[in-house]
Specification:
Metal Transport, Frataxin, Chain A, alpha+beta, 5 strands
């Protein structure tokens, strides 16, 4: 008995690439609307019995608590909020841009602002302080006598 059928990559490569882009869109929303945790633990999707889920996000940014699930059994994306409202749409037949628009519409129907801030370079950083060393001679390590090399 074979537990899982064979999945030759060549046969579903285009689907994999498209799904990856769909997940990147949802992942950017997850990144923007989840409380930060060390090691980026707030970002990954988690497996469910039917696909993957974002787990709860929102609240800290003024949005209601919501989740986004990719249901690979029913071939749909399901967004839901804590009040029990859901919005879903089929995954088939979408370009990346039409998926994005449908996804934003689903979030809007749940009262979620799904916008993602654009990444911009930080201008608040101060340059490193100049070195106080004025000599062009490199410093020596006091524990290594001069001329022994240490390596």
């Amino acid at each position: 008995m074979e537990l899982f059928p064979a999945l030759p990559l060549d046969e579903w490569y285009d689907t994999k690439q498209t799904l990856h882009r769909f997940e990147q869109i949802v992942g950017k929303v997850r990144l923007a609307h989840s409380p930060r945790r060390n090691h980026w633990w707030h970002v990954p999707f988690h497996l469910t019995g039917t696909g993957v889920t974002s787990r709860p996000m929102g609240l800290v940014d003024g949005n209601p608590v919501f989740t986004v699930d990719f249901d690979f059994v029913r071939h749909e994306l399901v967004a839901s909020n804590l009040e029990g409202h859901t919005a879903s749409f089929p995954l088939q037949g979408h370009t990346v841009s039409s998926f994005y628009l449908q996804f934003q519409s689903a979030l809007d129907s749940l009262g979620v602002d799904g916008s993602v801030p654009l990444a911009t370079p930080s201008t608040s950083r101060t340059p490193a302080a100049p070195s106080r060393r004025t000599s062009s001679t490199p410093p020596t390590c006091p524990s290594t006598p001069t001329g022994t090399g240490g390596s």
